[in-house]
Design a protein that fits this description.
Length: 767
């Protein structure tokens, strides 16, 4: 008995502190050297810090008071067990954390570095230490180690849209506190939009009296027909006192708040309060639905006076060096029809309405600069010429950021493809309704804010990255947390530890730490999503044979599956597929089913063993499955064009060649396109196919993508036309070619007007 117990203890202590097991640090430090032995933190430990490190020292004591029931007593540098030491050799925000058998030493060159050392120390304590009010004083054993750490990027941001839905300051503070835990240093506070103006401006009381409230809110998705509304007045705003309280709280968490005051677009709430700010002067309501609205600020003198007065109240509230002025999604229709706007374009010798937007932003920039601050704008501020000192937030992809960096402007990368946390994170059909898209945890983790298109010099302009949380479809705090966690853990690791250079090696390690981090999130009462126990399936092709591979991201799990209702088996290797197959599977942890039931249907059609080539590659943001996804026998989601089965092409005409290798009888070719005008996705109007015949000749047929009795009003988002390309006709050839012209530039009056349309195509089923 004794012997067995002894052995058990040996095994436990050997495995205790492996980096990704017991020590679940997120973001992962640059270097960690684990030593033997532990250090005990209890109420007898004494503390020394210089005034420069006061925020870090106070945070630690507040944290221990909250979770352990004691504070460390302050003493002299010589006598203290835990000391903060100034070390100018440490990089900005970096630190060394040394835990020996008798002492904890934190070295940093600045207050941020010391603060982040404390966050690391905190993550070495057990999750219970996060929980409030222990009944008795606690003590904790932590491993002896040396951590040397510093951030890869200086800007590590998280955004929250408090305009579409309003979140009170207690929640905003919790959100900010969670950024600090993950060594993120910037909170981008989206305060004004069409659906609500959320910041008190004393000079313009109607902004909040009227503009902070809407009569009702859309329920369900924007694309539902008919649209439904809840009939309930909705709103709220932050007083300047509230803002001061949040700013002070953020300072204690080493977080800078960048406020966003949107202009010239997303201004309907402001114009509803002061109609003279618009081009038409018409009284309009605060918006009750989502999207982009035509009513934007008119660049009149009185509008500039208004905006300067607003900014003059906003700027002193926020210590941030930046003010975000929006700049995105400003439809130019009203400017086109406005006599004042047209005269201004002429008088100022501007090229067009884009030139006018550029004039608008440059004028605001001059004002903001005169107050000692800099502007950030969404990437549309590149159109018509960039304001001289502006920082660009690249969201419609990476290109805006790349262009800005080449023009020597600072950039924050926040592309929809990797950093829009309002997009779906799982193709689980039970996910809460979201705007669309697909950004699972691994996609965020795979993000590299520095594009290969930039050389070393240009890359210096990429200050960092940020994830955005737009809240059209996120009505409450619990859902905010569900969308943010755990994806923010990946963004924190990308921006602090640096982008992964070996995804297949690093991601499993990350996921293991995420799994171990979840009890901490529980202790913090965070409503995180957990898709770690879900399965992922993939078609593999080898020597003309088709296999189906199942994987689950975390270690130590068992997969069991059944094919075409056969007996359930333990999964050990990819499954041979030779006919239409339905696969169901589950993940088991210690014999217990975890996660959700997995199901996949594979159509064993004639394309599955063919070769495919594309005239242009899919946009990197929507290329997850690669070209093979179009002939792998698996259809994409009916709701989520961003999954690994749909391929997205932005503005490109496309030709797809499918080569069967040998003459093949073909009865039909079927595919489908996604049509989501609200998200700039338009099915092509017509497609063509080159058909080969037995005698070696070919012809080309044109196929309209909608039946003639469909008119355009019937083509709404979520409606996915299934297009029979060929039916009832035999051809016998080795190659077919599909010609798919892009829909073109999105017309006025539609979401994304003036931009190139996206084409999304799914499985090409050949029978
Ligand atoms: C944005 O998502 N409109 C910046
Ligand atoms: Zn105008």
């Amino acid at each position: 008995m004794r012997k067995i117990l002894f052995l058990f203890i040996i095994i436990m202590s050997a495995g205790m502190f492996s980096q990704s097991d017991q020590i679940a640090l997120i973001p992962k430090p640059q270097s960690l050297e684990l030593k033997k032995g532990t250090f005990k933190i209890d109420e007898n430990i004494t503390l020394y810090f210089e005034p420069e490190f006061e925020i870090a020292g106070n945070f630690l004591n507040d944290f221990l008071q909250n979770g352990a029931g004691f504070q460390l007593k302050k003493t002299s540098e010589k006598e203290a067990d835990l000391i903060f030491k100034k070390d100018v050799s440490q990089p900005s925000e970096g630190y060394i954390l040394e835990i020996s058998n008798s002492k904890i030493t934190i070295k940093a060159s600045d207050a941020s570095g010391a603060f982040y050392a404390v966050q690391t120390l905190r993550q070495l304590l057990p999750p219970q230490a996060e929980t409030k009010n222990p009944t008795k004083k606690q003590s904790f054993s932590i491993p002896q180690l040396t951590i040397t750490d510093y951030p890869k990027f200086q800007y590590r941001g998280m955004h929250l849209d408090c305009a579409r839905h309003f979140f009170d300051i207690e929640f905003v503070k919790k959100y900010i506190a969670n950024l600090a835990l993950l060594k993120m240093n910037t909170f981008h506070w989206h305060l004004t939009d069409d659906q609500g103006w959320r910041i008190e401006i004393k000079k313009y009381p109607e902004l909040t009296a009227k503009g902070a409230f809407r009569e009702e809110t859309l329920i369900g998705h924007y694309n539902d027909t008919p649209q439904k509304f809840d009939g309930k007045r909705y709103g709220g705003f932050y007083t300047q006192e509230d803002i001061k309280e949040v700013v002070a709280f953020a300072a204690k968490h080493n977080v800078t708040i960048i406020p966003e005051i949107e202009m010239p677009g997303h201004a309907q709430a402001a114009i509803s309060a002061y109609p003279e700010l618009g081009c038409t002067g018409t009284q309009i309501p605060v918006a009750t639905t989502w999207g982009v609205f035509e009513d934007i600020f008119c660049p009149k003198e009185e509008t500039f006076t208004f905006l300067e007065n607003v900014l003059s109240e906003v700027i002193p509230l926020f210590p941030s060096e930046y003010i975000h002025i929006g700049g995105d999604e400003a439809p130019k229709l009203q400017w086109k029809n406005c006599a004042h706007c047209q005269k201004l374009i002429k008088d100022k010798n501007l090229k067009d309405e884009h030139g006018l937007q550029s004039y608008f932003i440059q004028r605001i920039e001059k004002f903001v600069n005169s107050k000692g601050k800099k502007i950030i704008g969404w990437d549309e501020i590149l159109e018509g010429g960039l304001a001289p000192n502006a920082t660009v937030m690249s969201w419609r992809g990476m290109q805006g950021g790349i262009d800005a960096a080449k023009e020597k402007h600072d950039v924050i990368m926040t592309p929809t493809s990797h950093s829009y946390f309002d997009y779906y994170q799982s193709d689980n059909p039970d996910e809460p309704l979201a705007i669309g898209g697909f950004v699972p945890l691994k996609k965020v983790y795979s993000f590299n804010p520095i594009s290969k298109e930039l050389n070393a010099e240009e890359s210096k302009y990429i200050l960092g990255a940020q994830a955005n949380l737009w809240t059209e479809y996120i009505p409450n705090e619990k859902q905010v947390e569900y969308m943010v966690f755990p994806r923010i853990l990946a963004m924190s690791e990308v921006t602090w530890s640096g982008p992964s250079e070996n995804l297949e090696k690093d991601y499993p390690d990350f996921v293991t730490r995420v799994e171990a981090f979840m009890p901490r999130l529980d202790s913090l009462n965070i409503n995180y999503a957990n898709h770690l126990y879900e399965l992922e399936g993939k078609i593999l092709k080898e020597d003309g044979k088709v296999f189906y591979e199942l994987t689950t991201p975390t270690k130590g799990k068992e997969i069991r599956y059944s094919i075409n209702n056969s007996e359930t088996k333990a999964y050990s290797k990819p499954i041979l597929i030779e006919e239409n197959s339905k696969i169901s599977a589950n993940v088991f942890k210690n014999g217990e089913k975890v996660g959700r039931d997995f199901f996949e249907e594979i159509m064993y059609h004639k394309g599955i063993t063919a070769k495919i080539s594309l005239s242009v590659p899919p946009n990197p943001a929507y290329a997850a499955g690669g070209k093979e996804a179009l002939i792998n026998g698996i259809s994409g989601s009916d709701k989520r064009y961003g999954d690994k089965e749909w391929l997205g092409f932005w503005g490109d005409d496309l030709e797809i060649t499918i080569d069967f290798g040998t003459p093949t009888d073909i009865n039909s070719v079927t595919t489908r396109f996604y049509n989501a005008p609200g998200q700039w996705i338009h099915a092509p109007k017509i497609i063509k196919m080159i058909r080969p015949f037995v005698d070696g000749t070919t012809d080309t047929i044109s196929i309209p993508t909608f039946s003639p009795d469909d008119n355009n009003e019937n083509i709404i988002e979520g409606y996915i036309p299934i297009i029979p390309i060929l039916a009832g006709k035999m051809i016998d050839g080795s190659k077919i070619v599909l010609i798919i012209p892009n829909y073109g530039i999105i017309p006025e009056g539609q979401q994304g007007a003036g931009n190139k349309a996206w084409t999304f195509i799914d499985e090409i089923i050949i029978e």
